[in-house]
Write a structure and sequence with these properties.
The strands form 6 sheets. A 6-stranded parallel β-sheet has the order 2-1-3-4-5-6, with helices on both faces. Strands 17-18-19-21-20 form a 5-stranded mixed barrel. Helix 8 runs parallel beside helix 9. With about 450 residues, it is of the alpha/beta class. It is built from 14 helices and 21 strands. It has 4 domains: about 120 residues, Methylthiotransferase, N-terminal domain (Rossmann fold, 3-Layer(aba) Sandwich), CATH 3.40.50; about 120 residues, 2-Layer Sandwich (Transcription Regulator spoIIAA), CATH 3.30.750.210; about 120 residues, Transcription Regulator spoIIAA, CATH 3.30.750.200; about 55 residues, Nucleic acid-binding proteins (OB fold (Dihydrolipoamide Acetyltransferase, E2P)), CATH 2.40.50. It binds 5'-deoxyadenosine and iron/sulfur cluster. 5'-deoxyadenosine binds next to strand 15. The site of 5'-deoxyadenosine has 12 residues, from strand 15.
């Protein structure tokens, strides 16, 4: 054997730490990155201070998300002072958006790797050892990391995310995602089903199928039939009635009755749909390039209610998008009241460089008006969440136990099919058990109950 041709193991027991910001896709990506690096001999550590490589997986969705990362990078300089050989890498959406700027401005970043280039990480680390800082941020039309088994970083071993697609083709005018994550591509369904099966066989009880727009999932091989999201959902849910299946995110323009019918037929598909409305005003929706109107959205809502009366409905709302008038805002308020959302993520519009809104519209809603509208939206949602939770009092739900309550170790917490957190007495139940719990009290954020 020619020993000269054998490459030394890159990691050789060195330790890698990842800090993850942003959406669930990013959490999934961090698990892929750990898998890639473990194959090269790196060990994952939860302790940042003992790491030889720190990677920060970043989000660009709003300006404040990026500001937070810059702040965090400043803090990393103390680790660099302690360990001069420490490698700091920025990965994810901000890496794609800013590339070399991160190295130049931060003074401490060594590598910058975009969402489609994680396979390049080992080579970039090799280059650093030769003194060359590295950037790899090209987007791909094919990369899905389908062959890589993510290393699960959430140690509870109950619930896992499975990315079924990457990128986004929707081009909402406010959104940076198509620029940071590239065009939409779906992953081979067999690899998804195998991953879900493996998770179930190793004790997981819940999987969440992830994508920027899961309803537009599509795969066809050769001349074969096209597999769409409904087929995929059915096949994953068929693995076992004991495996809960969730999916996120749905785009209102693509949520079909076929998906709802499959949910009706398969009770292990969770009764929870996240359907971001963004605004209740058709005029705003048009400017946002959402490709649906208020009426279309409400039609989808009624269809969900008709098919699945016990389904929770949650949303995302943006306050103060370009040109939003008081009337448009009132329409968002009225939509929220009409739907009676169980939960919402609510944001002030934040202009993002190079998006259609930034290029062609004026960010003209004054900051204080944005704040006032967002406050009104948050206050209303607080009230709606409380009303929704109050309706659960006296009802019994199957809860999948996720952990011991942070406030008391005599209590457990888990989620209902509707994705609401329910807290109850620990007794002899274990993490990963399904427990029937009667709801006895609630706040706007959680339910409390007694197991039966
Ligand atoms: N400003 C504010 N919120 C935004 N979102 C996406 N882009 C922006 C932006 N530029 C919100 C949307 C989306 C969620 C993930 O983030 O509500 O659904
Ligand atoms: Fe996720 Fe979008 Fe943030 Fe990227 S910009 S991390 S896709 S939320």
């Amino acid at each position: 054997m020619d020993f000269k041709t054998i490459r030394p193991i890159l990691g050789n027991g060195k330790k890698l730490h990842i800090e993850t910001y942003g959406c669930q896709m990013n959490s999934g990506d961090s698990e892929i990155v750990v898998s890639i690096m473990q194959k090269e001999g790196f060990f994952y550590t939860n302790k940042i201070e003992e790491a030889d490589i720190i990677l920060i997986n970043t989000c660009s969705i709003r300006d404040n998300a990026e500001k937070r990362i810059w702040g965090r990078l400043k803090e990393f300089s103390k680790y660099k002072k302690l360990n001069r050989k420490l490698i700091v890498g920025v990965i994810g959406c901000m890496a794609k958006r800013l590339n070399e700027e991160l190295i130049e401005k931060s003074k401490i970043v060594d590598i910058v790797v975009g969402p489609d280039s994680y396979r390049d990480l080992p080579d970039l680390v090799r280059s650093i050892r030769k003194g060359v800082k590295g950037v790899s941020v090209l987007l791909s039309q094919e990369e899905t990391y389908a062959d890589i088994s993510p290393v699960r970083l959430d140690k509870s071993g109950v619930s896992a995310f499975i990315a079924i697609m990457r990128g986004c083709n929707n081009m909402c005018s406010y959104c940076v995602v198509p620029y940071t994550r590239g065009i939409e591509r779906s992953r081979n369904p067999q690899t998804i089903i195998n991953e879900a099966k493996d998770l179930f066989e190793s004790g997981y009880k819940e999987v969440t199928l992830l994508g920027q727009n899961v309803n537009s999932y599509g795969w066809s091989e050769g001349e074969g039939d096209k597999i769409g999201f409904p087929d995929l959902l059915r096949q994953v849910a068929a693995i076992s009635p004991q495996l809960r299946v969730r999916f996120s995110t749905s785009h209102p323009k693509d949520l079909s009755d076929e998906v709802l019918e499959i949910m009706v037929a398969m009770p292990n598909i969770c009764r929870a749909i996240h359907l971001p409305a963004q605004s209740g005003s058709s005029r705003m929706l048009e400017l946002m390039n959402r490709k649906y109107s208020r009426e279309w959205y409400l039609d989808r809502m009624y269809s969900i209610r008709k098919h699945l009366p016990d389904c929770s409905i949650t949303t995302d709302v943006i306050a103060g998008f370009c040109g939003e008038t008081e009337e448009d805002h009132k329409e968002t308020i009225s939509l929220m009241n009409e739907v009676g959302y169980d939960f919402a993520y609510m944001y002030k519009y934040s202009e993002r460089p190079n998006t259609k809104a930034q290029r062609t519209m004026i960010d003209d809603v004054p900051e204080e008006v944005k704040t006032a509208r967002l406050t009104e939206i948050i206050d209303l949602q607080q009230k709606l969440s409380l009303e929704s939770n109050k309706l659960d009092i006296g009802k019994c739900f199957e809860v999948l136990v996720e952990g011991v309550s942070k406030r008391s170790d005599t209590k457990l917490y888990g989620r209902t099919s509707q994705n609401k957190v329910l807290i109850f007495d620990r007794k002899d139940y274990k993490i990963g058990d399904y427990v029937m719990v009667n709801v006895t009290e609630c706040s706007s954020a959680t339910l409390k109950g007694e197991s039966i």
